[in-house]
Amino acid sequence: MRSLTCDVLVIGSGPAGLAAAYEAKKHGAEDVLLLERNDELGGILQQCIHTGFGVREFGEDLSGPEYAWRWIARARSADLRVLSETMVLGVDHSRRVVASSRALGLVEILPRALVLAMGCRERPRGALAIPGSRPAGVFTAGTAQRLVNIEGYMPGERYVILGSGDIGMIMARRLTLEGAQVVAVCEILPYISGLRRNLVQCIRDFDIPLHLCTTVTEVRGRDRVESVIVSRVDEQWRPIAGTRQEIPCDTLLLSVGLVPENELTRMAGATIDPATGGPVVDEGHGTDVPGIFAAGNVVHVYDLVDDVSAAARIAGRSAGRYVRQGAPEAGQRIRLRAGENVRAVVPQILGLAALEEGPVVLQFRARHPVEGPVRAELVMGEGAGARVLLSRRHRYVRPAEMVTMSLPPALAAELAAAGDSARDLAVRIIE
Amino acid sequence: MPDEREFICVTCPVGCSILAKVEGQELIEIRGQACQRGEAFVREELTAPRRMLTTTVRVRGGKLPLVPVRSSAPVPQGLLFALARALRQVELSAPVGDHQPVMLNALDTGIDIVTSRAVEACEGYEEKPGAGT
After folding, report:
1. Would the pTM count as exceeding 0.90?
2. Which H helix or E strand runs over A100?
3. Is B54-115 assigned to CATH 3.10.530.10?
4. Is any Cβ of chain A less than 8 angstroms from the Cβ of B34?
Protein backbone atom coordinates (compact mmCIF):
# COMPACT_ATOMS: atom_id res chain seq x y z
CA MET A 1 0.00 0.00 0.00
CA ARG A 2 1.32 3.43 -0.91
CA SER A 3 1.67 5.95 1.84
CA LEU A 4 1.28 9.71 1.39
CA THR A 5 1.75 12.60 3.74
CA CYS A 6 0.46 16.17 3.54
CA ASP A 7 -0.15 19.17 5.77
CA VAL A 8 -3.93 19.28 5.45
CA LEU A 9 -6.13 16.57 3.96
CA VAL A 10 -9.69 17.52 3.01
CA ILE A 11 -12.26 14.76 2.43
CA GLY A 12 -14.88 15.86 -0.11
CA SER A 13 -14.73 18.57 -2.76
CA GLY A 14 -18.21 20.04 -2.56
CA PRO A 15 -18.59 23.69 -1.58
CA ALA A 16 -17.31 22.94 1.93
CA GLY A 17 -14.25 20.98 0.89
CA LEU A 18 -13.25 23.48 -1.78
CA ALA A 19 -13.52 26.44 0.60
CA ALA A 20 -11.77 24.63 3.46
CA ALA A 21 -8.88 23.48 1.25
CA TYR A 22 -8.47 26.93 -0.30
CA GLU A 23 -8.53 28.64 3.08
CA ALA A 24 -6.14 26.14 4.72
CA LYS A 25 -3.65 26.85 1.96
CA LYS A 26 -4.05 30.60 2.41
CA HIS A 27 -3.49 30.28 6.15
CA GLY A 28 -0.21 28.51 6.31
CA ALA A 29 -0.64 24.93 5.13
CA GLU A 30 1.80 24.43 2.27
CA ASP A 31 0.74 21.03 1.06
CA VAL A 32 -3.05 20.65 0.89
CA LEU A 33 -4.57 17.49 -0.60
CA LEU A 34 -8.23 17.36 -1.62
CA LEU A 35 -9.94 13.97 -2.01
CA GLU A 36 -13.06 13.46 -4.13
CA ARG A 37 -15.03 10.29 -4.76
CA ASN A 38 -16.51 11.50 -8.07
CA ASP A 39 -14.52 12.11 -11.27
CA GLU A 40 -15.03 15.86 -11.05
CA LEU A 41 -15.04 18.38 -8.24
CA GLY A 42 -17.98 20.41 -6.94
CA GLY A 43 -20.11 17.76 -5.23
CA ILE A 44 -23.87 18.13 -5.36
CA LEU A 45 -23.65 21.65 -6.85
CA GLN A 46 -23.14 20.14 -10.32
CA GLN A 47 -26.71 18.84 -10.34
CA CYS A 48 -28.24 21.97 -8.78
CA ILE A 49 -28.69 23.76 -12.10
CA HIS A 50 -31.06 26.41 -10.69
CA THR A 51 -29.84 29.86 -9.70
CA GLY A 52 -29.82 31.46 -6.26
CA PHE A 53 -26.25 30.65 -5.30
CA GLY A 54 -23.43 33.08 -4.67
CA VAL A 55 -25.27 36.26 -3.74
CA ARG A 56 -23.20 36.59 -0.56
CA GLU A 57 -19.95 34.99 -1.72
CA PHE A 58 -19.67 36.59 -5.17
CA GLY A 59 -22.39 39.28 -5.20
CA GLU A 60 -24.04 37.54 -8.16
CA ASP A 61 -26.97 35.20 -8.72
CA LEU A 62 -25.23 32.05 -9.95
CA SER A 63 -26.35 28.53 -10.83
CA GLY A 64 -24.94 25.60 -8.84
CA PRO A 65 -22.42 24.60 -11.54
CA GLU A 66 -21.32 28.23 -11.94
CA TYR A 67 -20.78 28.52 -8.18
CA ALA A 68 -18.83 25.24 -8.16
CA TRP A 69 -16.60 26.23 -11.08
CA ARG A 70 -15.76 29.57 -9.48
CA TRP A 71 -14.49 27.68 -6.45
CA ILE A 72 -12.71 25.06 -8.56
CA ALA A 73 -10.90 27.90 -10.33
CA ARG A 74 -9.89 29.32 -6.95
CA ALA A 75 -8.62 25.90 -5.85
CA ARG A 76 -6.60 25.59 -9.06
CA SER A 77 -5.09 29.03 -8.62
CA ALA A 78 -4.09 28.12 -5.07
CA ASP A 79 -2.09 25.13 -6.30
CA LEU A 80 -3.88 22.47 -4.25
CA ARG A 81 -3.21 18.78 -4.89
CA VAL A 82 -6.38 16.98 -5.98
CA LEU A 83 -7.05 13.25 -6.01
CA SER A 84 -10.42 12.48 -7.60
CA GLU A 85 -12.09 9.08 -8.03
CA THR A 86 -10.83 8.35 -4.55
CA MET A 87 -13.07 7.09 -1.78
CA VAL A 88 -12.09 7.11 1.87
CA LEU A 89 -12.68 3.77 3.56
CA GLY A 90 -11.49 4.53 7.06
CA VAL A 91 -10.14 7.17 9.43
CA ASP A 92 -8.80 6.77 12.94
CA HIS A 93 -8.21 9.17 15.83
CA SER A 94 -4.55 9.60 14.83
CA ARG A 95 -5.79 10.97 11.44
CA ARG A 96 -4.59 7.95 9.49
CA VAL A 97 -6.82 7.78 6.43
CA VAL A 98 -7.17 4.74 4.17
CA ALA A 99 -8.65 5.33 0.73
CA SER A 100 -9.28 3.47 -2.48
CA SER A 101 -8.10 5.48 -5.47
CA ARG A 102 -8.43 4.81 -9.18
CA ALA A 103 -4.96 6.23 -9.83
CA LEU A 104 -3.08 4.90 -6.79
CA GLY A 105 -4.98 1.83 -5.66
CA LEU A 106 -5.28 1.33 -1.93
CA VAL A 107 -3.52 4.27 -0.32
CA GLU A 108 -2.72 5.40 3.21
CA ILE A 109 -2.61 9.12 3.91
CA LEU A 110 -1.07 10.61 7.03
CA PRO A 111 -1.96 14.33 7.22
CA ARG A 112 -0.93 16.74 9.96
CA ALA A 113 -4.52 18.03 10.04
CA LEU A 114 -7.73 16.62 8.60
CA VAL A 115 -10.87 18.44 7.44
CA LEU A 116 -14.06 16.39 7.11
CA ALA A 117 -16.30 17.77 4.35
CA MET A 118 -18.52 14.85 3.34
CA GLY A 119 -21.70 16.94 3.27
CA CYS A 120 -25.09 15.41 3.97
CA ARG A 121 -27.49 12.78 2.67
CA GLU A 122 -31.18 12.72 1.96
CA ARG A 123 -33.43 10.92 4.39
CA PRO A 124 -34.63 7.83 2.48
CA ARG A 125 -37.98 6.02 2.38
CA GLY A 126 -36.74 3.51 4.94
CA ALA A 127 -36.49 6.28 7.53
CA LEU A 128 -40.19 7.12 7.13
CA ALA A 129 -41.86 3.72 7.39
CA ILE A 130 -44.57 4.43 4.79
CA PRO A 131 -46.77 1.34 4.56
CA GLY A 132 -47.67 -0.29 1.29
CA SER A 133 -46.01 -2.24 -1.46
CA ARG A 134 -42.47 -1.80 -2.76
CA PRO A 135 -42.87 -0.91 -6.43
CA ALA A 136 -40.41 0.96 -8.64
CA GLY A 137 -41.02 4.69 -8.86
CA VAL A 138 -40.06 5.92 -5.39
CA PHE A 139 -37.05 8.27 -5.47
CA THR A 140 -35.51 10.87 -3.23
CA ALA A 141 -35.81 14.34 -4.77
CA GLY A 142 -32.02 14.54 -5.13
CA THR A 143 -31.86 11.26 -7.06
CA ALA A 144 -34.54 12.55 -9.43
CA GLN A 145 -32.56 15.78 -9.74
CA ARG A 146 -29.47 13.84 -10.79
CA LEU A 147 -31.45 11.74 -13.31
CA VAL A 148 -33.10 14.78 -14.89
CA ASN A 149 -30.24 17.30 -14.80
CA ILE A 150 -27.16 15.14 -15.36
CA GLU A 151 -28.15 11.76 -16.79
CA GLY A 152 -30.97 13.07 -18.98
CA TYR A 153 -33.78 10.74 -17.90
CA MET A 154 -37.27 11.58 -16.71
CA PRO A 155 -38.04 9.17 -13.87
CA GLY A 156 -41.83 9.40 -14.40
CA GLU A 157 -44.72 11.37 -15.85
CA ARG A 158 -47.10 11.98 -12.97
CA TYR A 159 -45.58 12.87 -9.62
CA VAL A 160 -46.53 13.23 -5.99
CA ILE A 161 -43.86 14.89 -3.85
CA LEU A 162 -43.73 14.16 -0.13
CA GLY A 163 -42.08 16.91 1.87
CA SER A 164 -41.65 20.60 1.08
CA GLY A 165 -37.88 20.80 1.39
CA ASP A 166 -36.08 23.04 -1.09
CA ILE A 167 -34.95 20.18 -3.34
CA GLY A 168 -38.52 18.85 -3.54
CA MET A 169 -39.95 22.26 -4.44
CA ILE A 170 -37.20 22.93 -6.97
CA MET A 171 -37.84 19.53 -8.57
CA ALA A 172 -41.58 20.28 -8.72
CA ARG A 173 -40.75 23.27 -10.94
CA ARG A 174 -38.09 21.43 -12.92
CA LEU A 175 -40.34 18.46 -13.74
CA THR A 176 -43.25 20.76 -14.65
CA LEU A 177 -41.03 22.71 -17.03
CA GLU A 178 -39.97 19.43 -18.64
CA GLY A 179 -43.60 18.59 -19.36
CA ALA A 180 -44.40 16.27 -16.45
CA GLN A 181 -47.37 16.68 -14.12
CA VAL A 182 -46.81 17.31 -10.42
CA VAL A 183 -50.22 16.55 -8.96
CA ALA A 184 -49.50 17.16 -5.27
CA VAL A 185 -46.85 18.32 -2.81
CA CYS A 186 -47.65 17.01 0.68
CA GLU A 187 -46.11 18.41 3.85
CA ILE A 188 -46.78 16.84 7.25
CA LEU A 189 -46.06 20.13 9.08
CA PRO A 190 -48.44 23.12 9.07
CA TYR A 191 -45.75 25.16 7.23
CA ILE A 192 -43.32 24.52 4.37
CA SER A 193 -39.87 23.26 5.33
CA GLY A 194 -37.94 25.03 2.55
CA LEU A 195 -37.34 28.69 1.72
CA ARG A 196 -40.37 30.87 1.10
CA ARG A 197 -39.09 32.14 -2.23
CA ASN A 198 -39.26 28.56 -3.49
CA LEU A 199 -42.90 28.40 -2.44
CA VAL A 200 -43.52 31.32 -4.81
CA GLN A 201 -41.27 30.54 -7.76
CA CYS A 202 -41.55 26.74 -7.72
CA ILE A 203 -45.04 25.94 -6.40
CA ARG A 204 -47.44 28.90 -6.72
CA ASP A 205 -46.06 30.10 -10.08
CA PHE A 206 -47.02 26.73 -11.57
CA ASP A 207 -50.31 26.24 -9.66
CA ILE A 208 -49.00 23.04 -8.07
CA PRO A 209 -51.36 21.87 -5.30
CA LEU A 210 -49.69 22.10 -1.88
CA HIS A 211 -51.29 20.18 0.99
CA LEU A 212 -50.09 21.10 4.49
CA CYS A 213 -50.69 18.84 7.53
CA THR A 214 -50.87 15.97 5.04
CA THR A 215 -48.69 12.92 4.51
CA VAL A 216 -48.48 9.80 2.36
CA THR A 217 -49.93 6.88 4.32
CA GLU A 218 -49.73 4.17 1.67
CA VAL A 219 -47.92 3.43 -1.58
CA ARG A 220 -49.86 1.28 -4.06
CA GLY A 221 -48.69 -0.61 -7.12
CA ARG A 222 -47.11 -3.97 -7.94
CA ASP A 223 -44.22 -3.38 -10.36
CA ARG A 224 -44.54 0.39 -10.59
CA VAL A 225 -46.21 2.97 -8.35
CA GLU A 226 -49.85 3.26 -9.41
CA SER A 227 -51.13 5.60 -6.73
CA VAL A 228 -50.48 6.89 -3.24
CA ILE A 229 -52.91 7.37 -0.40
CA VAL A 230 -52.58 10.71 1.38
CA SER A 231 -54.16 11.54 4.72
CA ARG A 232 -54.45 14.65 6.83
CA VAL A 233 -52.65 14.48 10.18
CA ASP A 234 -53.35 15.90 13.64
CA GLU A 235 -50.90 17.88 15.82
CA GLN A 236 -49.09 14.66 16.76
CA TRP A 237 -48.67 13.77 13.06
CA ARG A 238 -51.19 10.91 13.40
CA PRO A 239 -53.34 10.30 10.30
CA ILE A 240 -56.92 11.46 10.85
CA ALA A 241 -59.49 8.75 10.17
CA GLY A 242 -61.77 9.44 7.24
CA THR A 243 -59.35 11.77 5.43
CA ARG A 244 -57.74 9.15 3.17
CA GLN A 245 -57.60 10.16 -0.46
CA GLU A 246 -56.14 8.18 -3.34
CA ILE A 247 -53.99 10.09 -5.85
CA PRO A 248 -53.08 8.27 -9.08
CA CYS A 249 -49.39 8.78 -9.97
CA ASP A 250 -46.43 6.79 -11.29
CA THR A 251 -43.71 8.39 -9.18
CA LEU A 252 -43.31 9.43 -5.56
CA LEU A 253 -40.47 11.82 -4.72
CA LEU A 254 -39.25 12.25 -1.14
CA SER A 255 -37.96 15.58 0.07
CA VAL A 256 -38.08 14.89 3.77
CA GLY A 257 -34.88 16.28 5.17
CA LEU A 258 -31.12 16.08 5.00
CA VAL A 259 -28.89 14.34 7.50
CA PRO A 260 -25.19 15.17 8.00
CA GLU A 261 -23.00 12.36 6.64
CA ASN A 262 -20.74 11.35 9.52
CA GLU A 263 -19.77 7.71 9.14
CA LEU A 264 -16.08 8.70 8.93
CA THR A 265 -16.44 11.19 11.78
CA ARG A 266 -17.68 8.38 14.03
CA MET A 267 -14.82 6.11 12.91
CA ALA A 268 -12.38 8.85 13.92
CA GLY A 269 -13.92 8.83 17.39
CA ALA A 270 -15.37 12.36 17.37
CA THR A 271 -18.34 13.03 19.65
CA ILE A 272 -21.60 13.48 17.75
CA ASP A 273 -24.28 15.95 18.87
CA PRO A 274 -27.61 14.09 18.62
CA ALA A 275 -29.41 17.40 18.03
CA THR A 276 -27.48 18.23 14.84
CA GLY A 277 -26.37 14.77 13.71
CA GLY A 278 -22.89 16.25 13.26
CA PRO A 279 -19.78 16.39 15.41
CA VAL A 280 -19.58 18.64 18.44
CA VAL A 281 -17.34 21.51 17.31
CA ASP A 282 -15.65 24.52 18.87
CA GLU A 283 -15.62 28.06 17.49
CA GLY A 284 -12.87 27.06 15.01
CA HIS A 285 -15.04 24.13 13.85
CA GLY A 286 -12.56 21.69 15.40
CA THR A 287 -13.98 18.38 16.65
CA ASP A 288 -12.97 16.91 20.01
CA VAL A 289 -10.31 14.78 18.25
CA PRO A 290 -7.10 16.84 18.02
CA GLY A 291 -6.27 17.97 14.48
CA ILE A 292 -9.63 16.92 13.00
CA PHE A 293 -11.94 19.71 11.78
CA ALA A 294 -15.42 19.61 10.23
CA ALA A 295 -16.61 21.88 7.42
CA GLY A 296 -20.10 22.73 6.20
CA ASN A 297 -23.03 20.32 6.10
CA VAL A 298 -21.25 17.57 8.07
CA VAL A 299 -21.59 19.86 11.10
CA HIS A 300 -25.24 20.77 10.57
CA VAL A 301 -27.32 21.28 7.46
CA TYR A 302 -27.23 24.82 6.07
CA ASP A 303 -29.95 26.55 4.02
CA LEU A 304 -27.58 28.34 1.66
CA VAL A 305 -24.40 27.28 -0.04
CA ASP A 306 -22.84 30.68 0.64
CA ASP A 307 -23.13 29.89 4.35
CA VAL A 308 -21.55 26.46 3.80
CA SER A 309 -18.55 28.15 2.16
CA ALA A 310 -18.29 30.67 4.98
CA ALA A 311 -18.39 27.96 7.67
CA ALA A 312 -15.87 25.85 5.76
CA ARG A 313 -13.48 28.78 5.62
CA ILE A 314 -13.44 28.78 9.42
CA ALA A 315 -12.59 25.05 9.48
CA GLY A 316 -9.90 25.48 6.80
CA ARG A 317 -8.33 28.42 8.60
CA SER A 318 -8.23 26.44 11.85
CA ALA A 319 -6.63 23.45 10.09
CA GLY A 320 -3.98 25.72 8.51
CA ARG A 321 -3.26 27.26 11.86
CA TYR A 322 -3.07 23.85 13.55
CA VAL A 323 -0.40 22.78 11.06
CA ARG A 324 1.58 25.96 11.63
CA GLN A 325 1.26 26.33 15.39
CA GLY A 326 -0.25 23.16 16.82
CA ALA A 327 -3.32 23.22 19.04
CA PRO A 328 -4.12 26.75 20.21
CA GLU A 329 -4.13 27.69 23.89
CA ALA A 330 -7.51 26.39 25.01
CA GLY A 331 -8.23 28.78 27.85
CA GLN A 332 -11.63 28.48 29.50
CA ARG A 333 -14.09 26.52 27.36
CA ILE A 334 -17.83 26.91 27.67
CA ARG A 335 -20.52 24.52 26.53
CA LEU A 336 -23.44 26.21 24.74
CA ARG A 337 -26.89 24.79 25.26
CA ALA A 338 -30.06 25.04 23.16
CA GLY A 339 -32.68 26.82 25.28
CA GLU A 340 -36.33 27.68 24.66
CA ASN A 341 -37.45 27.29 21.03
CA VAL A 342 -33.93 26.47 19.83
CA ARG A 343 -33.16 23.11 18.25
CA ALA A 344 -29.35 23.11 18.40
CA VAL A 345 -26.48 25.59 18.58
CA VAL A 346 -23.26 25.54 16.54
CA PRO A 347 -20.54 25.80 17.73
CA GLN A 348 -21.37 23.76 20.81
CA ILE A 349 -18.08 24.73 22.49
CA LEU A 350 -16.89 28.30 22.93
CA GLY A 351 -13.24 28.95 23.81
CA LEU A 352 -12.81 32.29 25.57
CA ALA A 353 -9.24 32.73 24.28
CA ALA A 354 -10.56 32.56 20.70
CA LEU A 355 -13.43 34.94 21.45
CA GLU A 356 -10.92 37.50 22.73
CA GLU A 357 -9.23 37.43 19.32
CA GLY A 358 -12.35 38.12 17.29
CA PRO A 359 -16.14 37.77 17.09
CA VAL A 360 -17.66 34.28 17.08
CA VAL A 361 -20.90 33.67 15.17
CA LEU A 362 -23.44 31.29 16.69
CA GLN A 363 -25.81 29.49 14.32
CA PHE A 364 -29.10 27.94 15.40
CA ARG A 365 -32.64 27.14 14.30
CA ALA A 366 -36.01 27.71 15.87
CA ARG A 367 -38.00 24.61 16.81
CA HIS A 368 -41.26 26.21 15.71
CA PRO A 369 -42.02 29.32 13.63
CA VAL A 370 -42.99 32.67 15.15
CA GLU A 371 -44.38 35.12 12.60
CA GLY A 372 -43.84 38.27 14.60
CA PRO A 373 -41.14 40.14 16.49
CA VAL A 374 -38.94 37.86 18.59
CA ARG A 375 -35.67 38.14 20.46
CA ALA A 376 -32.77 35.71 20.21
CA GLU A 377 -30.89 35.79 23.49
CA LEU A 378 -27.71 34.47 25.01
CA VAL A 379 -28.44 33.77 28.67
CA MET A 380 -26.49 32.59 31.70
CA GLY A 381 -28.31 30.32 34.13
CA GLU A 382 -31.90 29.21 33.98
CA GLY A 383 -35.46 30.28 34.77
CA ALA A 384 -36.30 33.58 36.44
CA GLY A 385 -32.72 34.07 37.64
CA ALA A 386 -31.30 33.85 34.11
CA ARG A 387 -29.05 36.75 33.16
CA VAL A 388 -29.39 38.01 29.59
CA LEU A 389 -25.94 38.66 28.11
CA LEU A 390 -27.02 39.50 24.57
CA SER A 391 -30.39 40.14 22.98
CA ARG A 392 -31.05 40.55 19.28
CA ARG A 393 -34.37 41.42 17.65
CA HIS A 394 -35.67 39.48 14.68
CA ARG A 395 -38.77 40.19 12.62
CA TYR A 396 -39.70 36.48 12.73
CA VAL A 397 -38.12 33.04 13.09
CA ARG A 398 -38.78 29.99 10.92
CA PRO A 399 -37.27 26.53 11.31
CA ALA A 400 -36.26 26.57 7.62
CA GLU A 401 -34.13 29.67 8.10
CA MET A 402 -31.02 29.55 10.25
CA VAL A 403 -30.62 32.32 12.82
CA THR A 404 -27.21 33.77 13.62
CA MET A 405 -25.85 35.80 16.52
CA SER A 406 -22.42 37.38 16.58
CA LEU A 407 -20.67 37.34 19.96
CA PRO A 408 -18.43 40.40 20.41
CA PRO A 409 -14.89 39.88 21.77
CA ALA A 410 -15.77 42.14 24.73
CA LEU A 411 -18.03 39.36 26.00
CA ALA A 412 -14.97 37.18 26.72
CA ALA A 413 -13.95 39.27 29.75
CA GLU A 414 -17.49 39.23 31.13
CA LEU A 415 -17.67 35.44 30.78
CA ALA A 416 -14.23 34.96 32.32
CA ALA A 417 -15.26 37.09 35.31
CA ALA A 418 -18.41 35.01 35.78
CA GLY A 419 -16.20 31.97 36.39
CA ASP A 420 -18.10 28.75 36.98
CA SER A 421 -21.54 30.24 36.44
CA ALA A 422 -20.56 30.90 32.80
CA ARG A 423 -20.56 27.16 32.30
CA ASP A 424 -24.32 27.24 31.85
CA LEU A 425 -24.80 29.35 28.73
CA ALA A 426 -27.86 28.90 26.56
CA VAL A 427 -29.35 30.41 23.45
CA ARG A 428 -33.11 30.96 23.43
CA ILE A 429 -35.74 32.54 21.22
CA ILE A 430 -38.57 34.33 23.00
CA GLU A 431 -41.52 36.43 21.90
CA MET B 1 -61.13 50.59 -3.57
CA PRO B 2 -57.51 49.53 -3.23
CA ASP B 3 -56.86 45.82 -2.68
CA GLU B 4 -54.51 44.58 0.03
CA ARG B 5 -52.25 41.90 -1.43
CA GLU B 6 -49.43 39.87 0.07
CA PHE B 7 -46.25 39.15 -1.86
CA ILE B 8 -43.27 37.00 -0.96
CA CYS B 9 -40.20 38.57 -2.50
CA VAL B 10 -38.05 36.09 -4.44
CA THR B 11 -35.12 38.44 -5.04
CA CYS B 12 -32.98 36.93 -2.28
CA PRO B 13 -33.18 34.02 0.19
CA VAL B 14 -34.74 36.17 2.96
CA GLY B 15 -38.16 35.98 1.27
CA CYS B 16 -39.74 39.08 2.82
CA SER B 17 -43.52 39.11 3.25
CA ILE B 18 -44.62 42.34 1.65
CA LEU B 19 -48.08 43.80 2.12
CA ALA B 20 -49.09 46.06 -0.72
CA LYS B 21 -52.14 48.23 -1.29
CA VAL B 22 -52.82 48.18 -4.99
CA GLU B 23 -55.41 49.65 -7.30
CA GLY B 24 -55.34 47.78 -10.61
CA GLN B 25 -51.68 47.70 -11.51
CA GLU B 26 -50.85 50.75 -9.45
CA LEU B 27 -49.01 50.46 -6.16
CA ILE B 28 -50.53 52.74 -3.49
CA GLU B 29 -48.70 51.68 -0.34
CA ILE B 30 -46.18 49.04 0.60
CA ARG B 31 -44.72 47.65 3.83
CA GLY B 32 -42.73 44.68 5.09
CA GLN B 33 -39.81 44.77 2.67
CA ALA B 34 -36.38 44.73 4.28
CA CYS B 35 -34.67 46.45 1.34
CA GLN B 36 -35.40 48.53 -1.75
CA ARG B 37 -35.40 45.52 -4.05
CA GLY B 38 -38.69 44.50 -2.44
CA GLU B 39 -40.56 47.46 -3.89
CA ALA B 40 -39.05 46.90 -7.34
CA PHE B 41 -40.10 43.25 -7.10
CA VAL B 42 -43.73 44.12 -6.24
CA ARG B 43 -43.94 46.68 -9.05
CA GLU B 44 -42.73 44.08 -11.51
CA GLU B 45 -45.10 41.42 -10.14
CA LEU B 46 -48.02 43.81 -10.68
CA THR B 47 -47.16 44.56 -14.27
CA ALA B 48 -44.87 41.98 -15.87
CA PRO B 49 -43.47 39.29 -13.57
CA ARG B 50 -40.10 37.84 -14.50
CA ARG B 51 -38.24 34.71 -13.45
CA MET B 52 -34.85 33.20 -14.09
CA LEU B 53 -34.98 30.20 -16.44
CA THR B 54 -32.67 27.24 -15.90
CA THR B 55 -32.85 23.98 -17.82
CA THR B 56 -30.57 21.62 -19.74
CA VAL B 57 -29.82 21.02 -23.42
CA ARG B 58 -28.47 17.88 -25.08
CA VAL B 59 -24.79 17.55 -25.95
CA ARG B 60 -23.52 15.26 -28.71
CA GLY B 61 -20.19 13.58 -28.12
CA GLY B 62 -19.67 15.01 -24.66
CA LYS B 63 -18.44 13.45 -21.44
CA LEU B 64 -21.91 14.28 -20.15
CA PRO B 65 -25.14 13.87 -22.14
CA LEU B 66 -26.47 17.30 -21.05
CA VAL B 67 -25.22 20.75 -20.29
CA PRO B 68 -27.05 23.05 -17.83
CA VAL B 69 -28.14 26.37 -19.31
CA ARG B 70 -29.59 29.57 -17.86
CA SER B 71 -31.06 32.84 -18.96
CA SER B 72 -28.60 35.70 -18.68
CA ALA B 73 -31.36 37.72 -16.91
CA PRO B 74 -34.90 37.00 -15.69
CA VAL B 75 -37.35 36.36 -18.54
CA PRO B 76 -41.09 37.11 -18.72
CA GLN B 77 -42.79 34.47 -16.58
CA GLY B 78 -45.34 33.64 -19.27
CA LEU B 79 -42.57 32.54 -21.63
CA LEU B 80 -40.96 29.95 -19.33
CA PHE B 81 -42.73 26.96 -20.90
CA ALA B 82 -42.19 28.14 -24.47
CA LEU B 83 -38.50 28.72 -23.80
CA ALA B 84 -38.07 25.33 -22.12
CA ARG B 85 -39.81 23.70 -25.09
CA ALA B 86 -37.60 25.52 -27.59
CA LEU B 87 -34.47 24.52 -25.67
CA ARG B 88 -35.48 20.85 -25.74
CA GLN B 89 -35.02 21.01 -29.54
CA VAL B 90 -31.44 22.28 -29.25
CA GLU B 91 -28.45 19.98 -29.42
CA LEU B 92 -24.87 21.20 -29.02
CA SER B 93 -21.69 19.45 -30.12
CA ALA B 94 -18.92 18.86 -27.62
CA PRO B 95 -16.70 20.43 -26.59
CA VAL B 96 -19.09 22.97 -25.09
CA GLY B 97 -17.64 26.06 -23.46
CA ASP B 98 -18.67 27.75 -20.23
CA HIS B 99 -21.05 30.64 -20.86
CA GLN B 100 -21.36 29.59 -24.51
CA PRO B 101 -24.41 31.20 -26.15
CA VAL B 102 -27.14 28.63 -26.77
CA MET B 103 -29.92 30.91 -27.97
CA LEU B 104 -29.38 34.62 -28.59
CA ASN B 105 -32.31 36.98 -28.05
CA ALA B 106 -34.42 33.97 -27.10
CA LEU B 107 -38.00 34.32 -28.40
CA ASP B 108 -37.35 38.04 -28.93
CA THR B 109 -36.99 38.72 -25.22
CA GLY B 110 -33.66 40.45 -25.73
CA ILE B 111 -32.25 37.90 -23.29
CA ASP B 112 -29.69 35.24 -24.16
CA ILE B 113 -29.61 31.64 -23.00
CA VAL B 114 -26.07 30.58 -22.14
CA THR B 115 -24.41 27.44 -20.77
CA SER B 116 -23.74 27.21 -17.05
CA ARG B 117 -20.59 25.11 -17.38
CA ALA B 118 -18.27 23.49 -19.92
CA VAL B 119 -18.59 19.92 -21.17
CA GLU B 120 -15.50 18.26 -22.59
CA ALA B 121 -15.62 16.07 -25.64
CA CYS B 122 -15.55 12.34 -25.11
CA GLU B 123 -12.21 10.82 -26.05
CA GLY B 124 -12.37 8.84 -29.27
CA TYR B 125 -15.62 10.43 -30.38
CA GLU B 126 -15.58 11.57 -33.99
CA GLU B 127 -18.22 13.67 -35.59
CA LYS B 128 -19.36 11.75 -38.69
CA PRO B 129 -21.49 13.33 -41.37
CA GLY B 130 -25.05 12.15 -40.94
CA ALA B 131 -24.41 10.72 -37.47
CA GLY B 132 -26.15 11.76 -34.31
CA THR B 133 -29.69 11.60 -35.64
Report:
1. yes
2. strand A97-101
3. yes
4. yes
